[in-house]
Amino acid sequence: MRHTWDRDPRGSLSFAKPERVRAERCGNLEYLFPTSMARGLVQLQDIDISDRAVLEKIVARWDEILNDQTPDDQLLFPQLTSLRFRRLQNLKRLFPVNYSLDWSSLKTLHAFECGKLKMFASEALQSSEGDDTGFQQALVSIVQVIPNLEVLGLGIEDVLIIKDGDFLDDLFRNLKILCLACFGEGSVGFLSRFLLDFPNLKIEGLILGGFLFEEIFLDEAGKYLKALQKLRELQLVQLCNLRYVWKEGSLAAEILKRIELLGIERCHRLKTVFPEACDSFENLTKLNIEKCDGIRYLMAPSAARGLPKLARMTIQDCEMMGEIQ
Asked: Between 235 and which of 45, 117, 207, 297 could a Cys-Cys bridge form, CB atoms 3.0 to 4.6 Å apart?
């Protein structure tokens, strides 16, 4: 599939007022909507796009495609609150020059592995996007967007831009869920440095993907307890070197005691989750384990006593697991 329509009926093309658009693994799709269609999506609230190797933009002008003309200077998707992009290697821009979004309405923003898309600028932007000369202006202003977000996903490049800026201590004042992705070299100490740089976080959920560390929270965990004092949900995704969720004597025990939901996915070096009895997960109520091929048993027999509140446990596609205890 190369596009989501056959031809442009000169402004009459529309959907039945969808609230969500999700697109995944449509390898040859170059763009999603012409401007004539996009202008009609006035109730769209959620855009979620992933795994598209060819996609270059979300909205394309018809005069770029069929030498047609469409009006400019228009606000698109006025009710949009969630925008998520993942693994879009060729994505360069969202919409043509002079079209814009009301970024202040966003509550959720994710952008991972979109190598050609420059997401953040440290100062307020003067226009919606870059021109067509090859210069790519950043998509959103940190100071205008991040303080309003409740869910934020960041890659290492975005974190470095934020870290190097001069922002108020309450930049993340409304943030509830933080997703950090860091693939490749330099990821081992990345989480610790981030938490030390932003001690005023008050997040309730933390999702970690791609890191190379063997242990989640290193020995300096005591230094960033403040940033994670409200943490209740922890999800670990594709941590290929992870060997310990909990280790005896770790300063992370105080963090883990507050965790109510723990999710682990594609962490293949992990052999077990609870190797021995501990009280670090005394408030854990939900446990989800998926596609962790190295896990042979979930917990030591003595560990069950340290999980008094565990009410729901889901285990899927863990090839080596022979027993729970």
From this structure: 207
Q: Are 225 and 219 in contact (CB under 8 A)?
A: no
Q: Which of 239, 247, 248, 300 is nearest to 270 (CA)?
A: 239
Please state, in angstroms and rounded to a whole number, the distance separating the CA atoms of residues 288 and 314: 5
- Please state the pTM of the whole predicted model: 0.84
Give per-residue pLDDT as tens, 267-322: 999 888 887 767 778 899 999 999 999 988 888 777 778 888 999 999 999 888 87
240: nearest Cα among 205, 208, 262, 263: 208
Q: Give 18-29 pLDDT, tens digit per residue.
A: 888 888 776 677
Question: CA 59 → CA 65, 106, 136, 148, distances in Å?
Answer: 11, 18, 16, 25
N- to C-terminal Cα separation, the chain: 48
- Pairing between strand 205-209 and 233-237? parallel
pLDDT tens, residue by residue, 154-201: 887 788 888 777 777 788 999 999 999 876 665 667 787 788 888 888
- Residue 212 CB contacts under 8 Å (≥ 6 apart), including other chains: 184, 185, 187, 188, 239, 240, 241
Which of these, 75, 155, 71, 73, lies nearest to 111 by C-alpha position?
A: 155
Provide the residue type at 154 as one letter.
Answer: L
- Measured at the CA of 157, the angle between CA 153 and CA 162, to 5 degrees, comes to 75
Which of 92-96, 143-147, 155-159, 309-313 has the highest average model confidence (pLDDT)?
A: 309-313
- 82 close to 45: Cβ distance less than 8 angstroms: yes
